[in-house]
Design brief:
By secondary structure, this protein is α/β, with parallel strands linked by helices. It has helices at residues 14-25, 42-53, 66-73, 89-106; strands at residues 6-9, 30-34, 57-60, 78-81, 111-114. InterPro entries: NAD(P)-bd_dom_sf, NmrA-like, NmrA-type/Isoflavone_red_sf.
Length: 132
């Protein structure tokens, strides 16, 4: 049986890096979303290069570019979103929403694991609203 292809969004963050490493170690074909603006962060670029050297496939797409995001999603069976709360919470939720909309449009995803990771412990609005 062929293993599912996994796309990790937020793969250069604290949690996302560990997800990418685990996915690769378990032998899943692993794709990592590489956002164009990431080139400004040397640490994240180094993480991406390390993932590529370990066999991950880097897929360039912005969460603000619906067509490229849908194209990235169509290459896989499973999406893991580890976008973090380094943005304002409302911005993170908006980015997650854009990802969900791209997944709906692509129409091929078997599983979605969405981690809502925030740096504060303040309550957030019901995240299930994103899935409607």
């Amino acid at each position: 049986m062929e293993k599912s292809k996994v796309l990790v969004v937020g793969g250069t963050g604290f949690v996302g890096r560990r997800i990418v490493v685990a996915s690769l170690a378990l032998g899943y074909p692993t794709f990592v979303l590489m956002r164009p603006e990431i080139s400004l962060d040397v640490d994240k670029v180094q993480a991406l290069l390390s993932f590529k050297a370990q066999g991950a496939r880097l897929v360039e797409a912005s969460l603000d570019d619906r067509a490229r995001l849908v194209a990235a999603v169509r290459q896989v069976d499973v999406v893991v979103s580890a976008l973090s709360g380094t943005h304002h919470r409302s911005q993170t939720v908006l980015l997650q929403h854009k990802l969900v909309e791209a997944i709906k449009e692509a129409g091929n995803i078997k599983e979605l694991l969405m981690l809502l990771i925030f740096l504060s412990v303040a309550p957030v609005a019901d995240p299930s609203e994103l899935l409607r």
